[in-house]
Write the structure tokens for this entry.
Amino acid sequence: MNNHLCHWSALTILGVTGIAILNAAPVIAETQDFEVLPPTIEISSENADVLTDVQVQATESGLVITFETTAEALPAVTTTTVGDRLIIEIPDVILSLPGENIVEVLQPTAEIESVQISPGENGGGQLIITGLTAPPMVAPRLEGKQLILEVTPDESIAENLELVVTADRTANSYTVSEATTATRTDTPLAEIPQSIQVIPKAILADQGVSSLDDALRNASGVLQNSADARGQRFVVRGFDSASVLWDGFRPTFGFSGNIGYPELANIEQVEVLKGPAAILYGVSEPGGVINLVSEKPLSEPVYEATLELGNRNQVAVGVDLSGPLNEDGNLLYRLNALYRNSDYYRNFNVDLERTFIAPTLTWQIGDRTDLDLFVEYSADQRPYDTGLVAIGDSVADIPFDRNLSQLDDINEATYWRTGYEFEHRFSDNWKVRNGFNYIAYNTIFESSFTLGFDPTTGDLDRSYIQLDQPSSTYAVQTNVVGEFSTGAVDHTVLMGVDYIHRNQLGNKLRGFGPDSYFTQNIFNPVYGVVPQPDFETQPIIRFGDTYINAVGIYLQDQMDIGDRLHILAGLRYDTVSQRVVNPTSLTETTQNDDAFVPRLGVVYRPIEPISLYTSYSQSFAPNSGTNVDGDTLPPEVGEQFEVGVRAEALEGALVANLAYFDIRKNNVATSDPDNIGFSINAGQQRSQGIELDVMGEILPGWKIVANYAYTDARVTANNDGQAGNRLINSPYHSANLWTTYELQTGSLKGLSFGVGVNYVGDRFGDLNNSFSLGDYFLTNAAIAYRQDNWRAALNFRNLFDVEHITGTRNNRFEVYPGEGFTVLGTLAVEF
């Protein structure tokens, strides 16, 4: 990147900061100290206890605020009115809230501007409820183990306003205030010194998203690279094969394993942490990690059924059931289940079919101990699609739906994931968490392997093959989180250890027998001339059995110095052992790598809505290949410097993040110029650029997701003639926009319209930069109607049926076209 871009990025960051400060000025000006008047209502009780699990819900008459409590009698409740504010004090109780120990809900109804719940200055709990033009009224009561506060607006304004319920803010909001992926603690995004985008379920629902690649369009600088039957791979900040995590656990080890096609039916939100994340997650690429956060069981009963119908004969039915299993409410469950079937969007006889089920159980063992148990099962069938081919410097000029193999090529995959998450809170300041995951993934595909290609005639020489690939992964994580102070510094310390063991055993490849070979012409394909052989009669090629063990130990300290300065420092030690056993000779090869990985970041908040941050972080990954002495190469090490600004407007309803990053991956394996057939670790890759992300609600009902990325990712040192070449499927420019508006009043209240666009610039399909993938511009739209307990929607993707290429597998024979025009109708009913 040249100096002009650096100067431009600095000016842009300053400009966005200035704009956000100006926008925030009115909010700051309104902040003042109020004189507390004598109480107007006082309700006493004999006992006081713990208040937890606060819920704020809109009703036709106002709000209901509910606390779980151990009190046996109604606690003392004192109310005071100051201007348009109702101040509720609940003394002599212990108030336990998540995160920063504060809960804030903005614009829950048309008559109530905000609700703020926090500990009182002298202990107990305090609620500040601000009315539109007058303070609301409250009526407390105790029902079983719940303290319920019924809040109603002043009757003088309630009778003149139509109720506009936007308090379902948690369920329907495009913004999230906290995330765990960056720190493994509940940290406000405004205090994280690294770019992180959180894509909540509300966005996925509005866009009709069911695949991870469509979800990730909502984060800048993230692209799908390849999507054959083995699974999806993603490019983040220019680097391929970003790690995909489930609730912080990796389904495979490192970045080479395929992840299949993750199901989103039970996903609460998708979190994308940009830049190296080895400090918490070990071996990974330096571009970033993608974390899928699962839904948890609910304390209130929810029963939802969903039906989807679309073109290409798409049908999907699903259920989401949750609630308590016993009268005490300390045993909760959730069940997500889905069946989906559709034709494939290219010329195959094999349908896309999925069966998915995910039961989860939460046991609240006591006030301080929780245990979550879960199981996920997925069975998939899909065509084994090797995509198109490249001729010359571009993709072959043939129809994008053309099958270059056989019509019945198929892949069948099963995926099991089970485990637990345990948490015990020793006190309000110290807790221990332990989690375990077992993941079994098996894929069997019957397809064809490319042996050669004549671009002049268009003939592809191929052989039928069958590949059986079973694998299993065991992972354990344990960490302790503590909060304490040293002088003026408040600390949140994380100490942890994780262990991963992965087996890939018994891989069998059948094929290449005398009756397995055939030729397919890309310009005039003929299918079935050579029938698929009986694979039981084909020669067997056994791959080596692979055993991987990885242990990581990490320490992290989040330091808050006042309300404005936040420092994040951490260090991790990783050791990785890989052993491959030859199944025929029983000989084995081993590789051992270890590394220390640091991270340091600073956030400064000159005013509350603005966060200025900078950070340095590293990644670590074992290398492949050996040098002339037969020794394995030292591991790859990535390092990133990032600087950015995060701004909030409209009291947090709209957020923006602008970042400049510079990533270098060192020790990349490259050819040894002095010893043919061997490698040295003299290669380097570098990615630098600017990213802008905007998410939130501009006006009631008007929501937006917008992002842009400029990425200059290329090889900077290499002995294979690739120095200066751009990295695979990494465009200079990419941008996405989605906006929707829902009518808030009138007879059509609940009707919404959405429109969006996706732009991806020109890219190269391999590291030799021998062929271009072109650019593309897609248009999407939606119309939906929400009413009481049901929602109906029509979503349109690639509205104008634009032919486009999504990515490659770094070769000229696996070039993957994207989907054409797609329409999906959804009906969701909550019982």
